[in-house]
Design a protein that fits this description.
By secondary structure, the chain is mostly beta strands. The protein has helices spanning 9-19, 42-46, 53-58, 229-232, 414-418; strands spanning 36-40, 63-65, 77-79, 87-91, 94-95, 117-124, 137-143, 149-157, 161-169, 173-182, 188-203, 207-222, 239-255, 261-277, 293-312, 316-336, 341-362, 366-377, 383-393, 400-410, 430-440, 448-465, 471-490, 496-508, 521-530, 535-544, 547-551, 555-559, 562-573, 576-583, 591-593, 596-597, 602-611.
């Protein structure tokens, strides 16, 4: 893609990062990608200042987060009918998924800081050629790359919301810090903190280096999963969870004379956590309940990657690469059965090597893209992961259609492989087949819209078998079909209307098991109304359909659908931007999970101040 020659090397690479989406290893934009990609830019996030990562993502149609930050619980994300462990989460190109989690490598979104976010990419569907394990989708969070100068900001609001951030950026160095708190502590509390340091430097017009370091910690207190929450939990003590993570990445980009780019990256992630749960009292679903537990975890991941991209003439674009990864994890737990305490400890290491190739051909009206990834983990068979897409531009002004097919797999988590009570070292990788067909209008159409019909088949999913002996096994199968849509229109008075939604049918292919947190229908509508040059009013209406849920004290139940309306008013005051918002204006109080109601009406005030 052409880039102005007047830019410095780091600026050019930064522009490439903003243009290229994480759905592919090739430098293509969200509009060109065959997958359905949503990109939340800084302008989209300005109206959401003060919200947690979980709250921001749950406002996007097709994305379900079971517990928000105010509940203090574990915030797991569901996408296209799959489990939370089938979605990869990245922060500045570094994967956050933790295989020590009992949720199978899922990410606790409530433990991620949101106050220093510049851009969020949401990739729906397979992205495993570029990122292994992303068999249902991918979330990529990019932290801010500030313009030279400094900025400060804060947000306060109902439900004990408090957040603050500060950042400074020079020609090569940038620093940032953020903190976010929410919850009254009686029924839930969550605090996240993060510190970022970045450095970049370019030599002539070809070589650029980027170094990024990040420290983050979180503290959460909330009712345990399946306890019945605030309304039904018999044990009124709260879960206590804390984590600390440190990540570092060094990336180098070299522009070759033929227009190609050679990229090398080293990355390190270290996370340690502690969880102290009071357990769950016996109830309707389980006459024994869940025992109190205390767990300490320690996880390390080191990655090295090398990739090359290059055009070949005017029609072809090629990319090849290789990655090597070493993971080390240790979990030490104590399970209190009352009459005795059972220790449960394990430690595992896994080395994974992979190589991939991807190519795109662009003709006058047709485009084709294909990719293949080979991955082999220690003590496991190699896995081939192919992807193929075809796109066709119709007559001028008529838009385009496209279809894609992809197979992928995900290695079992350390918890599933090694836990001494339920682990099974013979587990196979989980597998997925994704098929998509879409139609998109042209850029010149009054309504810019995209409609995607998708089908997802998940096989060999890890499931619990009561035994005897009780253990995790490969047996579950999930099938999901659905329709996603997104449309927007800019009117002559600069009003903008955006419509997004997802209709989905999910079923257990092997039986009548109901799957939790998979609503049939989600939709949202947003209207942005500029009121002069420096003021903008926003209205956002969101609908979340009925979801199935279950808890120990209540047994199975359906959660009622919820429709909420949010208002926001932004005012530019010189170097400052003021936000006044009302979340959940109608004070909807339906449950987000059994026994945990949605946060009620909340006033939110935020201020961003640019200091030059």
């Amino acid at each position: 893609m052409p880039v102005s020659a007047a830019q410095t090397a780091p600026e050019r690479i930064h522009d490439l990062d903003r243009t290229q989406v994480s759905a592919s290893t090739l430098p293509i934009s969200a509009a060109v990608a065959s997958q359905h990609v949503t990109v939340l830019e800084r302008a989209d996030l300005d109206a959401l200042q003060g919200l947690s990562v979980a709250e921001i993502l749950s406002r996007q149609a097709g994305v379900v987060v079971d517990r928000g930050a105010g509940s203090g619980g574990y915030g797991a994300l569901y996408l296209r009918g799959a489990d939370p462990s089938h979605v990869v989460v990245l922060v500045d190109h570094v994967r956050q998924n933790d295989p020590l989690s009992s949720r199978g490598s899922a990410v606790d979104l409530n433990a991620l800081s949101s106050q220093d976010v510049e851009r969020i990419e949401i990739v729906r569907g397979n992205a495993s050629v570029a990122h292994a394990d992303a068999i249902a989708g991918l979330i990529h969070i990019h932290t801010r790359r500030a313009q030279p100068g400094a900025r400060v900001g804060f947000a306060v609001g109902g439900h004990e919301l408090r957040s603050a951030q500060a950042a400074w950026s020079g020609a090569a160095l940038r620093l940032g810090a953020a903190q976010h708190e929410q919850g009254d502590g009686a029924d839930g509390f969550q605090r996240t903190r993060a510190v970022d340091v970045g450095w970049q430097h370019g030599w002539d017009e070809r070589l650029a280096l980027h170094a990024n370091a990040r420290y983050a910690d979180s503290v959460g207190r909330g009712y345990p999963d399946d306890s019945g929450g605030r309304d039904y939990a018999a044990i009124r003590a709260l879960d206590r969870r804390s984590s600390r993570s440190r990540q570092f990445s060094l990336r180098g980009d070299y522009r070759t004379g033929a227009g190609g780019t050679l990229r090398a990256q080293l990355a390190h992630l270290a996370r340690d956590g502690e969880e102290d749960s009071p357990g769950v009292a016996p109830g309707l679903r389980d006459p024994f309940g869940l025992p109190p537990t205390r767990s300490l975890s320690d996880y390390r991941r080191d990655e090295a990657a090398l990739a090359w991209q290059s055009p070949a003439g005017e029609r072809w674009l090629f990319g090849v690469g290789a990655q090597a990864q070493r993971e080390r994890g240790e979990l030490d737990s104590l399970i209190d059965f009352g009459f005795f305490v059972l220790p449960a400890r394990f430690a595992l290491q896994r080395d994974t090597a992979s190589a991939y190739a991807e190519a795109r051909w662009q003709g006058a009206a047709w485009a084709a893209q294909g990719g293949l990834r080979y991955e082999r983990a220690s003590r496991a068979d190699g896995q081939w992961q192919p992807m193929l897409s075809l796109q066709r531009a119709l007559a001028p002004g008529r838009g385009e259609w496209g279809l894609s097919l992809a197979r992928s797999s995900k290695q079992p988590s350390f918890y599933a492989l090694g836990h001494p009570l339920v682990g099974n070292p013979a587990l196979r990788p989980e597998r997925a087949l994704q098929r998509e067909l879409y139609y998109a209008t042209s850029d010149e159409a009054p309504w810019r819209a995209r409609f995607t019909v998708y089908s997802a088949r998940y096989r060999d999913l890890v499931d619990f078998d009561a035994g005897p002996p009780p253990q995790l096994v490969n047996r579950a199968r999930i099938e999901a079909e659905g329709l996603e849509w997104s449309a927007s229109r800019l009117y002559r008075n600069d009003w903008r209307l955006s419509l997004d939604g997802n209709w989905m049918r999910v079923r257990d292919a092997d039986g009548d098991t109901r799957l939790r947190y998979r609503p049939r229908l989600q939709w949202s509508a947003r209207l942005d109304l500029p009121l002069g040059e420096r003021r903008e009013l926003g209205l956002a209406l969101r609908h979340l359909g009925r979801r199935f849920d279950s808890s120990v004290p209540t047994g199975d139940a359906w959660l009622d659908a919820a429709t909420t309306l949010d208002l926001s008013l932004q005012q530019q005051l010189g170097p400052a931007r003021l936000l006044l918002a009302v979340d959940n204006l109608g004070n909807a109080r339906e449950a987000e999970t059994l026994g945990n109601p949605l946060p009620g009406r909340r006033l939110r005030l935020a201020l961003q101040w640019a200091l030059q």
